[in-house]
Write a structure and sequence with these properties.
Distance between the termini: 5 Å
Strand content: 35-45%
Bound molecules: flavin-adenine dinucleotide
Shape: globular
Number of strands: 6
CATH class: Mainly Beta
Strand order of the largest sheet: 5-4-1-2-3-6
CATH architecture: Beta Barrel
Number of helices: 2
CATH superfamily: Translation factors
Length: 99
């Protein structure tokens, strides 16, 4: 799948809206229309800098498809991995499920 872009709540740069490329590394089905997607940032500096608090979300972008807000499911105590639990409903989430 093409690499995904994330706009993290707190990024390495002063601009938290700057997209950060990430790679989908695993997909785990929770229920038929709700899967857990695990991402890792491509740039180790983003991995180092990315921190979040419970309840925060990212804007998940797929190139050429669009973007949507998705809550971060992974624990803030496990930096380096970003888990998103996504329900398949429309354009972006449908494209995510197809990859
Ligand atoms: C702060 C926040 C956090 C969120 N966290 C999560 C999360 O952790 N996990 C998660 O799965 N979702 C989450 N969401 C919801 C997610 O952002 C939306 O479901 C988003 O719209 C999905 O994008 P999409 O492109 O797949 O869907 P869209 O294509 O935008 O479709 C959204 C809905 O509109 C309907 N729709 C689309 N086009 C039409 C049309 N032409 N006519 C009628 N109906 C239509 C679709 O059937 C669907 O029900 C969150 C939303 C917010 C605001």
């Amino acid at each position: 799948m093409p690499d995904t872009l994330m706009a993290p709540p707190e990024a390495a740069s002063a601009n938290p809206y700057l997209p950060r490329p990430a790679r989908l590394v695993s997909v785990r089905q929770m229920v038929p229309d709700n899967h857990l997607f695990t991402f890792r940032f491509l740039d180790s500096r983003d991995t180092e800098a990315f921190r979040h608090r419970p309840g925060q979300f990212v804007m998940l972008s797929l190139a050429g498809v669009g973007e949507a807000p998705i809550s971060i499911s992974s624990s803030p105590s496990r930096p380096g991995v970003l888990e998103l639990c996504v329900r398949r409903v429309g354009r972006l989430t449908g494209a995510l499920y197809r990859n």
